[in-house]
Amino acid sequence: MTPIYEPKGxxxxxxxxxxxxxxxxxxxxxxxxxxxxxxxxxxxFHQNVAPRKDIVTEVARxxxxxxxxxxxxHLCFTCDPYPFGYDTTxxxxxxxxxxxxxxxxxxxxxxxxxxxxxxxxxxxxxGITYDGTTCGTVDPEDRFMALFRAKMLGIKTWISFEPVxxxxxxxxCIENCHxxxxxxxxxxxxxxxxxxxxAEFGRKAEELCKVLGLDYYIKDSLRAEMRKVK
Length: 230
Prior knowledge:
By secondary structure, the chain is an alpha/beta fold. Helix content is 35%, strand content 13%. The chain has a 7-stranded parallel beta sheet.
């Protein structure tokens, strides 16, 4: 078992290494790609949320075996590192292992990871997902409060605006929260119908980030839409 892996495809845009800690996710976002990637029935994926077998032990072994150090490791892609209503001690233990071996973590959650802020420093990233709606088991306002606390502690903060479901609210969020975050990553809704004019939205989002002086990254699929003739 090698839980620390190098992402491929679109996931590569988020980081060099990653770990998926849990078997499922309780958020029930309709657009979630993980059940298909993992070849699991969607309902089972949302109900069966547990640490992967021996995940902490295997992470420790791989770090030692491969001498993994000096890396930024993303938590997580096919699950949430802080599944609401579940014991997230495995996440804390994995963060400790990564930090003790000289690595940093890049967290992305729709939950609340504030319990582990004491483990993080200025080389780590704490991020939330916001699609412009209330999708997720933790209210967006609570997610933003955790983001604020991280920022006040000197932890680097970011928001993943992917996939965007409500373009107007996402643009409003970028404008209102730009001083709360160090970076924004912005991407379109893929594989599902949408009435959003992606080229127009992408151009507005990019221009807004530039005006605000906010570091940003446009995901490749959205960038492709923006390149289309106006």
